[in-house]
């Protein structure tokens, strides 16, 4: 549905749990608040305020004229700590963590002085005064977007690609990078666990598939995860022939891993050249890095392929 922007008028507005004046009132939205809304029916908008999502009566929301630019643009953060909000207003609730200096994000004009953007696959808003628009055109191809926006993340050690998670974050970074490029949340594993990520690629209808590169790794994973025990431990012809492409998730099991560890780490394939590949990886030595590996490296468990082409 198309997002519109409107101003609360004629006094405070009830946010209700259902599109009915008899429904439970979740909260009161102050007069003059700017809201992002979508049509629900003739009389109600779906919207959110604070940390609550619900419905507001259309008669109390004055819709602004639509802005001419509706396609994504690249915007670069000019503040060392930019607040990302759930509505286009300085009084709106924040997503958990700010964005750092020089991050590149997809943005489009919202209401005056605000850009619409994405926060881990969810609609979000940032003040336009802290964003510089770039001349670089935004391609339709999600992978090209990912690879462009990953570069300024290199070297970050405390960048917060997630809400409130403090454990190992390699998979969270990979999922964040995909969603940051506008890959829908349902189309990526969206997990903190590399093993669960592989299971998602094997089984989920939204996946483009998983390609094991080693029978020992494949057998270990099948034995550890009953959800994929329908697989044969032998490599398929497709797995034998598979050559990774940029945007693939690349999973590793390090040679010094404990016997109980089935998979150690994940990154995103950046490029392929002459029997070698480069990566973008989060939480490698505690930071975002780009590294190079041989395609024959026995530590590679396999490749998960998001279904980028369906978007």
Describe the protein in words.
This protein has 311 residues and is an alpha+beta fold. 14% of the residues lie in helices and 33% in strands. The chain is built from five helices and 19 strands. It has helices at 142-150, 170-180, 194-203, 215-224, 237-241; strands at 4-8, 13-16, 25-29, 34-39, 44-49, 52-57, 61-63, 73-77, 104-109, 114-119, 122-127, 131-133, 207-212, 249-252, 265-273, 276-284, 287-289, 292-294, 300-306. The strands form four sheets. Strands 13, 14, 15, 16, 17, 18 and 19 form a seven-stranded antiparallel beta sheet that branches. Strand 9 and strand 10 (114-119) form a beta hairpin. The mean pLDDT is 91.
Short structural description:
It is built from five helices and 19 strands. The protein has 311 residues and is an alpha+beta fold.
Strand-helix topology:
Elements: E1 4-8, E2 13-16, E3 25-29, E4 34-39, E5 44-49, E6 52-57, E7 61-63, E8 73-77, E9 104-109, E10 114-119, E11 122-127, E12 131-133, H1 142-150, H2 170-180, H3 194-203, E13 207-212, H4 215-224, H5 237-241, E14 249-252, E15 265-273, E16 276-284, E17 287-289, E18 292-294, E19 300-306
Antiparallel strand pairs: 1-4, 1-7, 2-3, 4-5, 5-6, 8-9, 8-12, 9-10, 10-11, 13-19, 14-15, 14-19, 15-16, 16-17, 16-18
């Amino acid at each position: 549905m198309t997002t519109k922007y409107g101003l609360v008028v004629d006094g405070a507005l009830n946010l209700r749990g259902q599109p009915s004046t008899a429904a439970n009132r979740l909260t009161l939205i102050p007069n003059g608040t700017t809201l992002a809304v979508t049509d629900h029916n003739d009389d109600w908008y779906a919207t959110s305020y604070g940390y609550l999502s619900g419905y507001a009566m259309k008669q109390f929301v004055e819709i602004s004229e639509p802005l001419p630019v509706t396609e994504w643009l690249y915007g670069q953060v000019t503040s060392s700590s930019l607040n990302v909000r759930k509505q286009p207003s300085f009084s709106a609730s924040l997503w958990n963590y700010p964005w750092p200096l020089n991050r590149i994000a997809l943005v489009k004009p919202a209401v005056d002085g605000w850009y619409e953007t994405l926060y881990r696959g969810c609609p979000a808003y940032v003040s336009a005064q802290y964003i510089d628009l770039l001349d670089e055109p935004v391609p339709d191809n999600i992978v090209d977007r990912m690879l462009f926006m990953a570069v300024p993340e290199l070297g970050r050690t405390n960048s917060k690609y997630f809400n409130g998670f403090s454990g190992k974050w390699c998979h969270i970074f990979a999922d964040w990078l995909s969603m940051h490029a506008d890959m829908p949340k349902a189309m990526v594993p969206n997990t903190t666990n590399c093993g669960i990520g592989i299971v998602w690629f094997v089984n989920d209808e939204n996946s483009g598939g998983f390609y094991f590169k080693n029978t020992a790794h494949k057998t270990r994973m099948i034995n550890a995860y009953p959800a994929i025990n329908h697989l044969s431990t032998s490599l398929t012809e497709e797995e034998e022939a598979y050559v990774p492409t940029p945007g693939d998730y690349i999973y590793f099991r390090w040679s010094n891993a404990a016997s109980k560890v089935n998979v150690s780490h994940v990154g995103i394939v950046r490029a392929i050249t002459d029997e070698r590949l480069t990566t973008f990886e989060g939480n490698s030595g505690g930071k975002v890095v780009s590294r190079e590996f041989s395609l024959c490296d026995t530590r590679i468990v396999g490749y998960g392929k998001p279904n980028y082409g369906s978007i």
